[in-house]
Amino acid sequence: MSFVKGIELCRRFHMEIIEPFMMDQYPLLSYSSALMGPGSEVLGYDTEMSTDHDWVPRVYLFLNHSDFGYSDQIQSTLRERAPERFYGFPVDIEKTVITTVPMFIESYLAVNQDAQLELVDWLTFPSQSLLEITRGEVYRDDHGQLSALRKQFEYYPSDIWLYLMGSCWQRIGQEEHLMLRSGYIGDELGSAIIASRLVRDIINLCFLMERQYAPYPKWLGTAFNNLNCSNSLMPHLWTAQTAATWREREHALNQAYTHLSRMHNALGITEEIPEGVTSFFDRPFKVMNGEAIASLIANQIVDPDIQRLSKKRLIGNIDLITDNTDFRKMSRWSESRGESARTTFKNLFKD
């Protein structure tokens, strides 16, 4: 059994199993078929190791709302007719989810697709979840519903993009001098921990600057390698991550900040910022003054609600607030709990 990437295996599964089955059993039904949702294969990062669990030929099968009553029958018949193995890999029909586009998006993000999204809603969506909606591959889309869905969530609205970049710079500004202060008093461990946090914030900022959703931690470094800025920044970030002394970390991060300032100026979203670091008051430290850059970016926000929020709480979205996996998945709870959790979280930004 030779390994084949999940996107290709699922394409074959659609073409050789799902498509003939639907044509034979339900020739009048319109439907869409895609590889979406969780799984390293959706992002294209799967390897042979990925096949040891939750990795099977599968698709999401989307029906029209008026045809959803056929779902149990389709699943049952497909279970009877599908082979036990496909290209040498076990088949688990339960992994082929039959749903509708509105049901999918409500279960995934706890929003009603037909309702008007508020801009603040975007702050409750984990970027990994947005990747799982917009990546993968669509194999069939009879009425263009999946194309419309993926276009709707293709990337953050402009003011949310600005708010998140400002929030990343704010985080950098709040901790860049703390890494130096810890090292200065001989706490190299504490300094190294803060340096790691700064490296993570820089990487998140890079995804935003290049208008890409960042994946969850397992694939963060892998995806960062695919960004345009990675070749220039990686040596500095790796040095900051592995340096034994705070002065080495300071120099490496300052090199990274200089490159970030050039990237920022290339966006043309604010007046130009200095392409270099400055002294932190009278202390023997060099910093980027990230909070000042955050303020410049926040001033460009047009929407009054997001503008007001930026003045009150420049705290970012769910990804920047917490890295707790269970908390990030709260929008995938049952409908009533999910909506309650999302509403509670939105209140962090509104109160």
UniProtKB/TrEMBL annotation:
Protein name (record): DUF4037 domain-containing protein
Provenance organism: Paenibacillus glycanilyticus
Annotated InterPro entries: DUF4037
Pfam families in the cross-refs: DUF4037 (PF13228)
DUF4037 domain boundaries: 122-220
